[in-house]
Every structure is written in structure tokens, then in C-alpha cells.
Amino acid sequence: MPSNNVKEDSVAVAGAGKKSKSAFREYAESIVFALLLALFIRSFIVQAFKIPSGSMIPTLQVGDHILVNKLSYGIRNPFWGSFLAYFKKPQRGDVVVFIFPEDRTKDFIKRVIGVEGDMVEIREKKIYINGKPLEDPHAHFEGDAPERGTFNVRDEYGPREVPAHHIFVMGDNRDRSYDSRYWGYVDLDDVKGRAFLIYWSWDGTDRWVRWERIGDLIY
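Request: output the structure for the sequence above.
Response:
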């Protein structure tokens, strides 16, 4: 019993002799750790994006806020942009975010239609891959946009082969999408990840929250 009392007293004395961290230092360390964790997650794991245009209607609406899995296809170097390691390549039907080839300061989001080696052809708005009609359940047609008129390449394209290490992408809103039909292919090194979740959504005009879209998976 005496030895137990001595041990308990010694612990109390030792604890009393320690200088506690200041509240400012504790808060500062917590903030720095949170920032580093957020930077790591954004650089390597998940990144949030906002949808500003209607090129992916009806899959994605203007005002949708989405999450993109940056580990879907590999591990990217956050400083140089190239992949450190590949897990797999984008597949037909994936909705991907990538660096826009004509302006590398912008990110675009489209659906993968053709992968390397595919022969892509469009006849009267119908997509053919390697000579066979593509099952295309996400396609949406709104008609000609008045400000753009009719573009033959939009409805009649190819056949053209997708180069190695590239993909051919299109928006689901086929009549209102500026995509591979106009500017070509996407280098696999420029693919940032696969979109997988709508985490927030609201109407861009009235700011009404679209509660029914929140939590929807992106296919």
C-alpha cells in the first residue's frame, strides 16, 4: 500500500511540473495539420469540382458540385501532373475530368466514348465503335443551339482511329457539347480522375437546393 501511494504522488508531481502548451500553439498546430491533410487529399485522393455548363445534361446539371476520385486510374505527381503509377486506363462510359487541350488552365468533364485503337464514327448522330452501334443510354439531344447553328462534324464524324495513349470524349448533351468531335483527343496523362458523386446541387438562378440530387452516384 505505501508503495502505491508514493507512485501516485510522484505522477502528480511530475505532471504538475510540465508546462502546458499555449492555446495559440495548439490551435496553430491543428490548423497546419488540417491544411496539410486537405492538400494531401486534394492532390492525391479526391477533388471537388463545380459544373458550370450544360454539356453533360441530364447526367450533370449546372450547379452540381461533384467529387472526383483521383486514384481511379493511378497516382499523379501533383507538381508535374504526370502519373507516377497507373492502376488502369479509362474505360468506355467513364465520366472523367481532364485538362482541356486547347487551354490547359481549364478542366473539362466529359464521357469516354472511345479508347486507344477504337475506330469512332458518327452517322446521323448515332455512334459506331469499330463498325458496331454503341449502346448509348446517356445520350441526350436538345437540337441546334441558335447561336451556333448546324455543325456537320457534330452529327457526322469519322471514321477516325483513337491514337495510342488517348481517349475520345463527348458530352452527354450531344447537341450542346464542345468535345472531341471538334478539338480532338485527350492524352491519358491529362486525365485527373473519374467523377463519382454529386455532394451538393442547387439551381444557378434561384439558388434553390436540389435535395433530390445530393448523394447521387455518377454513372
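The longest helix spans residues 23-45.
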